[in-house]
Amino acid sequence: MFCRDFRSDFVEWCAISQFLRYEETDKAVPVFIAIGMGANPGKPERVYVAPMRHLLYNCLHRSFLRKYETHTDHPIDNWQMARMLPLQSKEPAQPPARKQRQ
Hints:
Layout: E1 2-3, E2 10-12, H1 16-28, E3 32-37, E4 46-51, E5 59-61, H2 62-66, E6 69-70, H3 78-84
Parallel strand pairs: 1-3
Antiparallel strand pairs: 2-5, 3-4, 4-6
């Protein structure tokens, strides 16, 4: 989804019917929503990527999206995406432990 800027601090990123479909799909496979903002859709100034399971509404406030802002100068890696998904224990994901040389 792309938009030029926030309107009154909110962005409506989809219709209610789309939101319900994304929510249903997220039950089977993780869904991530990407929102680009700025003057050029081909090179957005700001990009937000959030897991669908963290979204409760089809309209999002600017302050909510801030924690999902990503860099626009390089791709998002799998580890960044995995960190956003909750574990069964509800603890934040940790990077794999590195083995020390003996």
